[in-house]
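Subject: Sanity check before I submit

Could someone independently write out the structure tokens for this chain? I want to compare against mine line by line before I put it in a report. The sequence has 145 residues.
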Amino acid sequence: MIVTRDEIARLIPHQGAMCLLDAVSAWDENSISCVSSRHRALDNPLRQEGRLGALCAIEFAAQAMAIHGGLAGLVPERPRVGYLASLREVACRCERLDDIPGVLTIDAVRLMGDAAQVIYSFAVRGDARDLVTGRAAVILEAASP
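---
Independent answer below. Compare away.
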């Protein structure tokens, strides 16, 4: 793996169980591919009543986008926070994630953006199929001086 879980935790504000990605397997200026087994973790903070709904895949993808911004140097300074401004063309092809065997692959492709906002397409895959796909617009709030 190119970037480990410990290195990921230094790139995003999510820590402990809320850091949902295990590793970055590949990245370049416009895209990132990550892996995770955290969808099956009993301590996953997104679980409700012991289940992890399919829409939680969006948070996995959002973390991949945040990591990509840091690794690719697309954001000149680490943003204090990113706001998911909109989601488009989201397609869920499963009801839940916690019953998907093996690891999830989380891919995100930067479609456009700058230091203040960015749009990515994303796909969360597992069990040899697309589970959740879509596009996300994120507004970045710069850290206070």
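---
OP: Matches mine. For the report I'm noting this point. The mean pLDDT is 90.
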